[in-house]
Structures are given as structure tokens and as C-alpha cells.
Specification:
Layout: E1 25-27, E2 33-35, H1 36-40, E3 45-51, H2 60-71, E4 76-82, H3 94-105, H4 124-131, E5 148-151, E6 157-161, H5 171-179
Parallel strand pairs: 3-4
Antiparallel strand pairs: 1-2, 3-5, 5-6
Length: about 180
């Protein structure tokens, strides 16, 4: 089909999404810019998790920290993203969230400011994570706190895990991704 000044294209297919996780910036728990390219740009594997302080799954902070410490020297990062969209289970300010996770769970991995993972105000990172259909076992909105998304060394979604999947149970997959070129 003839195209004049960019009009009249016959293609109805959307262009493939070539973005990676490195194209996004979060706000840190300290309310400062946290470009993911600075955390992951050198080929790191990441586990991005929506978190909450008053959830029945909050104990998973222990496993997240343990898994982070186990693999961080090999190029692995956990990124916690607090969210108050599920049962109001993250009602606190960033300062209180930070105090809670550092004091109770000794968290040392990066944490973002509170954000939405679903709905019209969902953070663009989570919109993108949920749109990466080819690598995930399920699609659609985040179902609850502590849903996890594993990112490969190229900044692409490798796999998405439901909230009850513990960090320890996916360590073999993390190890496998860290060994890949």
C-alpha cells in the first residue's frame, strides 16, 4: 500500500516491544531516582517482587534476603517494590517500610518507593513486566503480594512466579540463568 508522509500504512500489527528492564526507572525507598540500568545494566539477573509488610507472605523477606546474599556476588539482584493494592497490607510510609524491612528482616537489597502494580496507576515497569507474554506461565494482573518476576542477563522477563512460590524454591533457576552467557 502506498504511504504518503507516514499515513496509509497497511500494517495493523504492533511493533515488537524491544525494551528491557534497563529502560525503566523506579523511585527508591529513600525517594531518589533508581534507574534500573544502574542496578542491572552490566548483565545481572534480577528478581523483582511486589512486597507488603502486613501480608501473610511477609515472611518471604527472609528468603529474598537469603537468596540475594547467596547470589549477589555472581551478579544477582533482588528488587522489592512495596504495594498497597492487596488488602491494604502496605499502609506505611516509605520511611516506616524501610525501617521495618531493615530491622525485622535485615534486608540489604534495593527497595523502591510504594507503587501500584495493577490498574490505571500501575507503574510502567509493572505494566511492561505483565505484558511479556512469551516467557511467563500466566498472564494478566498481579494476583497478590509477593508475586515475583525473574529477569535474565539481557534484561528480559524469563519467568513469573505466583505469590506462594518461595525465593528458595527458585534458586536453581537463578543459578542456571547466572551460568548462561
Amino acid at each position: 500500500m502506498f504511504s504518503f508522509l507516514g499515513f496509509g500504512s497497511s500494517s495493523t500489527e504492533a511493533a515488537p516491544d524491544t525494551r528491557t528492564v534497563n529502560d525503566f526507572t523506579l523511585q527508591s525507598i529513600k525517594l531518589e531516582p533508581m534507574p534500573l540500568k544502574d542496578l542491572l545494566g552490566d548483565g545481572k539477573v534480577a528478581l523483582i517482587v511486589n512486597t507488603a509488610s502486613k501480608c501473610g507472605l511477609t515472611y518471604q523477606y527472609t528468603g529474598l534476603e537469603s537468596t540475594y546474599k547467596k547470589f549477589k556476588d555472581r551478579g544477582f539482584v533482588v528488587i522489592g517494590t512495596p504495594c498497597n493494592q492487596f488488602g491494604g497490607q502496605e499502609p506505611h510510609s516509605e520511611e516506616k517500610i524501610n525501617d521495618f524491612v531493615c530491622e525485622r528482616f535485615k534486608v540489604s537489597f534495593p527497595m523502591s518507593a510504594k507503587l501500584d502494580v495493577n490498574g490505571p496507576n500501575a507503574h510502567p515497569l509493572w505494566v511492561w513486566l505483565k505484558s511479556q507474554h512469551s516467557a511467563v506461565p500466566f498472564i494478566n494482573d498481579v494476583s497478590w503480594n509477593f508475586e515475583k518476576v525473574l529477569i535474565d542477563k539481557h534484561g528480559k522477563v524469563y519467568k513469573r512466579f505466583n505469590p506462594v512460590t518461595t525465593p528458595e524454591s527458585i534458586e536453581a533457576e537463578i543459578d542456571q540463568l547466572l551460568m548462561k552467557e
